[in-house]
Structures are given as C-alpha cells and as structure tokens.
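wait is this the right file?? whatever heres the structure
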C-alpha cells in the first residue's frame, strides 16, 4: 500500500466525525480548540469542511464556511507536520476555496503564513492578540448579567448581526446551546448591552464572542464568564481581542491577562461594516 508521503492528493468534504481528527491537529499546534465546537461549526455550513488524503490517509485540512451570498470565512488550514513542503497545503487550499465562489473571504492568519495569504489576494485589516490568564473574582457579585436562554432570541440575534460581517442565525443558535458552552447577556434598562460565551477548550477556557456597548458592560460580562469557567474547572481563560478596539486590550490588562500570540484579520474584498467598538473578543479564530 502507498504511504501518505507519496501518491496523489485528493480533497473531499469532511464530516463532523472527521473533524475530531482535525481538532487534535489544532491542539498539537497550540491553537487551544474548543472541545465541543464542531456541532456549531457544521450547523452553519456542513459542506464547508475539507480533508486532503493521500492513499486514503488524512494529511491536510481546511474550512471555508459560507455565511451568506457575500461573505465566507477560512480556517483550520493545517498539514501534518511531517508532510509539509510537499504541496499538499496549497492543493487543499485551492480545492476548498472554490466553495466560497465570488464571496469576500476572511481569515485570521498566523504571522508565518501572512505573506502567503497576501500572495493569494488577502489584505490585512487589523491584528488580534490572544490574552490569557486568571481573572480575579470580583469583590461583589456581578449584577445585570443573565443567561442567554432568558433573553428574546431575536434581540440577541440583532445584537450579534451588528458585530459580525453577516447574519448567522444557524451558527448562533447552535453556539449558544452547545453543551459545554455558557452564554450570558448583559441587560441594562431592559435591553441587551452585550453578550458573551465561554466554553471548555483543550487548555484554558475560551471566551468568544465578547460583544458589549461599553467597557463597563464588557468588564461585567468578562467577570461573569470567568466565574462560569471556574465552575466547570478552568481557572484560566483565553480571549482573542482585536486591535481595532483599543478598549479591549485595556480591559485585558486591567484584569491581569497577558498577550500570548497574535494573528492578523485579513480579507479578499469588501465586507459588511461592523460596530467595531462593541467587539471586545472575536467569536472564534476558526470561523470569524
């Protein structure tokens, strides 16, 4: 039988069951994937996940998830370390990117790949830094924060739509309800002024999104989400904060979180504007 180091590469759609393998690859890269993300990812676009195989053995992966007729997001671009430099990554990239059609495509690129992405037509919009650490318990209970399940779903979806480049009702419904995810909403004068989700992950609990009207709303949510993480056994959290909202980094520093690694948000074309001042933490580097 041919080995994965020789023979032609074939790229085909991946199943949710296949993605358990890819999550393991992402963990080995230090990306700290969420433990239960796949169901929400596949709810958005079940045809947007791809595996490259040689002699039937998986060697590469990528996702190109479509949100609407104008926007898609690329993530999970991975090749097994021992098989890099053989062209498998580029072939997988080209085969999967066709799924986006003529949509503008976004991604969060690690520094080592950004020049390659530029050569493929992506332009940098801003940087994102992952902040990690243990948020101290507040001196007093956090008030004005409630479970997402107690909030009108339409109001929450409208808030999310203002903070993302495309409406994403299928993803949002799954993301809020996935086992192991805790979703909280900040309520002021009877209306949402922010929401966030924390989830179990390979290492530190991941916070995302963290959307809020003001730094005070974001701080209340971050404190409450950190408390939720402690309840399921994770004292440390990680949140990916965009440089495009300087108040996000200030909040992280106030809570004692430290930057670890950075990515660049990049796009191939125009995207729907978002309320950048509300985005304190991106939902996920894998799907935007």
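ok assuming it is, sequence goes like this
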């Amino acid at each position: 039988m041919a080995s994965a180091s020789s023979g032609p590469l074939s790229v085909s759609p991946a199943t949710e069951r296949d993605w358990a393998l890819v999550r393991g690859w992402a963990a080995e890269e230090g990306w700290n994937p969420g433990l239960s993300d796949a169901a929400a990812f596949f709810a958005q676009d079940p045809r947007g996940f791809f595996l490259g195989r040689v002699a039937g053995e998986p060697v590469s992966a990528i996702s190109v998830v479509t949100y609407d007729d104008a926007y898609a997001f690329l993530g999970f671009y991975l090749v097994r370390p021992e098989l890099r430099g053989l062209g498998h990554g580029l072939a997988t990239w080209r085969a999967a990117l066709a799924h986006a059609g003529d949509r503008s495509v976004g991604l969060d690129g690690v520094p080592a790949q950004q020049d390659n992405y530029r050569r493929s037509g992506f332009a940098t919009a801003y940087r994102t830094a992952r902040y990690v650490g243990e948020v101290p318990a507040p001196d007093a209970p956090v008030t004005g924060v409630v479970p997402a399940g107690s909030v009108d779903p339409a109001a929450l979806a409208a808030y999310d739509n203002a903070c993302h480049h495309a409406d994403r009702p299928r993803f949002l419904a799954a993301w809020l309800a996935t086992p192991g995810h805790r979703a909280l909403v900040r309520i002021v004068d009877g209306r949402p002024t922010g929401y966030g989700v924390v989830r179990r992950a390979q290492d530190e609990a991941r916070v995302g999104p963290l959307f809020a009207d003001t730094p005070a709303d974001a701080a209340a949510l971050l404190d409450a989400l950190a408390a939720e993480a402690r309840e399921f056994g994770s004292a440390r959290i990680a949140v990916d904060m965009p440089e495009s909202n300087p108040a996000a980094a200030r909040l992280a520093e106030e809570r004692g979180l430290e930057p670890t690694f950075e990515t660049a948000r990049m796009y191939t074309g125009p995207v729907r504007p978002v309320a950048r001042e509300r985005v304190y933490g991106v939902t996920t580097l894998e799907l935007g």
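The first strand starts at residue 9 and ends at 13. so i think its the right one actually
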